[in-house]
Amino acid sequence: MSSDSVTALLFVSGIALLIVGAEALVRGASRLAVATGVPPLVVGLTIVAFGTSAPELAVSLQASLANQPDVALGNVVGSNIANILLILGVAALIASPLRVNNTIVWLDTPVMIGASALLL
Questions:
Q1: CA dihedral defined by 67, 12, 8, 78, rounded to 10 degrees?
Q2: Which of 67, 86, 92, 116 could be 80's S-S partner, Cβ–Cβ 3.0 to 4.6 Å?
Q3: Which of 50, 7, 8, 6 is nearest to 25 (CA)?
């Protein structure tokens, strides 16, 4: 088996395991929310927050252990830029007009962009 075949097999296996794990996490959290009386929205938002942050944590941790702080810093800045501009832009395209609180537009978003710019 060539190294390209092994890489492709590992990639496909990783994607499959990621999907199965995500599905198990969501189902388990939903059952937990119902069993404890926590609103499903709260549990769902928590899972989404953890689920989207876990890959960045893994990459930053691995980069730090490999003594590559530039990768960890780039990961954080890139994630912030993608979350602010890409996700917000796609949401605005789908839900047009996008209704948001004025605090998000005039305070939260500029502060997050400014914090990312300061890291540069």
A1: -40
A2: 116
A3: 50
**Residue type at position 25:** L
Residues 40, 43, 46, 48, CA torsion sign? negative
Judge whether 98 and 92 are in contact, CB under 8 Å: yes
DSSP sequence for 54-118: HHHHHHHHHHHHTT-HHHHHHHHHHHHHIIIIIIHHHHHHHSSSPP--HHIIIIIHHHHHHHHHH
Specify the pTM.
0.54
- pLDDT tens column, 35-85: 888 887 777 777 777 777 778 888 899 999 999 999 988 888 888 778 777
Report how far Cα 80 is from the mean position of its chain's Cα atoms.
10
* Exposure of 18 in the CB half-sphere (CA atoms within 13 A): 10
